Amino acid sequence: MAKAFFRLQKFLRRTQFLLFFLTAAYLMAGSLLLLQRTRLVLQQGSRGAPSNQALPVPEETGRAGITEPRGLRSPRLPVGSGALQGPALDPRHGPRWLASRNSELRQLRRRWFHRLSSEQEPLQPAGFKARKRPAEHKGTYMGCFTHDSRERTLKGAVFYDLRKMTVAHCQEACAERAYSFAGLAHGAECYCGNTLPAAAAEPEQCSSECRGERGSVCGGLNRLSVYSVEQPRAAARTRRNVIYRGCFRTPENLTDTFPASLIQPNLTVEMCSEFCSKKEFPLAVVRGQECYCGYPTGRFPLRQGADGLRCRGSPNASSAAGGQYCLVYQTPVQDTRCTDRKFLTTKSKVFVALSSFPGAGNTWARHLIEHATGYYTGSYYFDGALYNKGFKGEKDHWRSRRTICVKTHESGKTEIEMFDSAILLIRNPYKSLMAEFNRKYAGHLGYATDRNWKSKEWPDFVNSYASWWASHVLEWLKYGKRLLVVHYEELKQSLIPKLKEMVEFLNVTVTEDRLLCVENNRDGNFKRSGAKQKNFEPFTQEMKDLINRYILTVDEALRGRNFSGLPREYVPR
Q1: What is the pLDDT of residues 306-337, one digit of tens each?
Q2: Which contiguous run of DSSP H or E holds residue 503?
Q3: Prediction pTM value
Q4: Phi, psi of 223 (to 5 degrees)
Q5: Positions of the region Disordered (predicted)?
Q6: Secondary structure of 343-392 in HEC code, one letter for each residue
Q7: What are 9-68's pLDDT values in tens digits?
Q8: Measured between alpha carbons, how far is 522 from 498 in angstroms, rounded to an integer?
Q9: Closest CA to 545 of 425, 430, 454, 426
Q10: Among 276, 275, 265, 386, which residue's Cα sits nearest to residue 334?
Q11: Domain map (residue ranges) of the chain
């Protein structure tokens, strides 16, 4: 017995040494492999991939996506009676082919969105030092004041930058709009105005550090750090952003309609706009020598404009018409009756999607829905640029049910059936393709360069994404449980009626004044501006033939589900 025990002890001792050497060898090999991979990643990161680099796809796919089979260059689509007219479709390129192709494109899209989100600048916690040197403040610190997001004291322009807000950044933005004061709250919100807040707060209550500048104070919880801004030159004030809204019939009761007024001999548009801006009103109304300030309301909705000839010429032209018509201008002051937003207090029982093809105006629709309902919208993805500009639902988990609806570009059966209902937003594919191509190369607000449009990326992009536009609609029509189809063009043309339909579909009740406020702020912060080429036509005839046939397929599918077909302006092109 003792001899057997001794042999077992000897065996275990040898095994311990063996296990020790094997473990050491394993750890050394793992460390070497980790160092090698880290070095490779660092080398790749130092080189940096170009922004227009194509996605890594198999050899049989194109640079910008999966290329069309050769037979797809001239497909034949079936057309029902009463639909948009066109040639017949070869069945192998009909809805079934698009559905199978959609499965392949979903995999490409996921890699596409993953690459976009990884390329975006990561968000940093509050207090991150975004600048090497603190920005130089222009103006005087006026103190800490109370702040109510619903009844704001600084009622001018407002914007967010949850990543890089600084005192100087806010001051410069307010100075460009010719405001006198700039207020910062929560470390990332900037408010402009011409009237200093009346209720002061204790200095220590403004303790939030600016998100983009360590050591600078940007308000606090319901507190504003207010700074005066340098007064711009007189020439800059005359260039203030005043927008002509049109000629309208004068309301019957001017006193009840407009809270502020001014009678001035030789009144000019600039004088009236300046007066209303100082009074913090978004509308300046001119009738002869009379100036009125106010908001769009049920008494003065700004929906039915009069013939411009009735207000033609100088402001006194309206007096010549017996005072029945007036000129209306938009001042830089923001209409704040619909800017308050929050998350749902209880989880939504109905899980609603806001689905669209990329470039179809999903961000704009979210802006309208948030301001109309007062609730944030969520997103299936995470876009840091949108989050930094105030779309706080971007950071919330898309299945939290704390948002009124969830943005998605997905169109697989599984992804669609996760939602109880959906608003399906459809836009002219020609416009959608161009908008998405612009976003791909120049972000949400820019335009792609001539070099981008003339490169091989553009035809590859059209070949891949045109079929995605069609398959996206077809899949949602097939698997969607409860749909509200909204055409981007109709929403843009008839904003209030279409927005009412969307809000009712979301089971939210809103006032007419809030909808008018949304209309007054309809563009939001994501309208492209700049050097847009006039009469720019990037589509070849071959591309048009391909897209037109997809349009006819979608039109027939919509009619088959008892929805109205696509707007006639989609084809021919």
Answers
A1: 887 878 654 444 454 557 899 999 887 878 78
A2: helix 495-505
A3: 0.70
A4: -135, 145
A5: 46-96
A6: CCCCCCCCCEEEEECCCCCHHHHHHHHHHHHCECCEECCCCHHHHHCCCH
A7: 666 666 666 677 677 777 777 666 555 544 433 443 443 333 333 333 333 333 333 333
A8: 13
A9: 430
A10: 276
A11: 140-228, 243-330, 352-526+538-570
